[in-house]
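Key result, reporting period 2: structure in, sequence out.
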């Protein structure tokens, strides 16, 4: 079985959001167009407590973009975003959520960040997504969403490492691009790890 994984299609990552990904809204129509091709559609949702230590505001004299050591892991500090129960943490209304079978929340532990939909950044705890896919008999996953150079990249890398045939739908992603080439570098890293890069128009012939 093939599964579509929609990564963090939330208000805070879209236009006027607290951590806006440039042109992030453009991926929503891609997601809606792809969902009918899949038996199983899953979503990830950044779901941070307000005291999450990835937020620059929770560190005295720190600014977004600075890097700290957080419990032994390198941590980029971010603006406050996707706080549990907040409007910004909701999946966007334009997304056809009726086709989403299950939502996996991540970043819920204030002591460690979670870019991937499968694990926290230290691979210390799993979200349950990997086991769920295996229980459903999924062998291939197609990953898209926000943002390419962080949560999408690490979700796809973990999917590939867990043994799923992994595809990245590149026109269904947008990057933060803190450095101009971050998005392209993410694609090259995914290719090097065996992830197949496709366009949304090609998906129907692959599933």
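The corresponding designed sequence is given below.
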């Amino acid at each position: 079985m093939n599964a579509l994984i929609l990564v963090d299609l939330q208000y805070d990552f879209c236009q006027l959001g607290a951590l806006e990904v440039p042109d992030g809204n453009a991926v929503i129509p891609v997601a809606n167009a792809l969902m009918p091709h899949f038996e199983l559609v899953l979503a990830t949702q950044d779901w941070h407590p307000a005291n999450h230590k990835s937020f620059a505001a929770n560190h005295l004299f720190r600014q977004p973009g600075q890097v700290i050591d957080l419990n032994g892991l390198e941590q980029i500090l971010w603006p406050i975003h996707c706080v549990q129960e907040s409007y910004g943490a909701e999946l966007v209304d334009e997304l056809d959520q009726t086709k989403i079978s299950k939502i996996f929340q991540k970043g819920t532990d204030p002591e460690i960040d979670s870019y991937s939909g499968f694990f926290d950044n230290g691979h210390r705890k799993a979200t349950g997504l990997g086991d769920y896919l295996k229980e459903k008999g999924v062998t291939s996953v197609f990953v898209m969403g926000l943002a390419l150079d962080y949560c999408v990249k690490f979700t796809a890398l973990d999917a590939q490492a867990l043994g799923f045939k992994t595809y990245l739908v590149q026109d269904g992603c947008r990057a933060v691009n803190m450095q101009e080439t971050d998005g392209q570098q993410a694609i090259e890293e995914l290719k090097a790890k065996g992830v197949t890069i496709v366009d949304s128009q090609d998906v129907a012939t692959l599933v």
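The helical segments are 27-34, 129-135, 148-161, 182-192, 200-203. DSSP finds five helices and eight strands in the chain. This case is discussed further under Risks and Mitigation.
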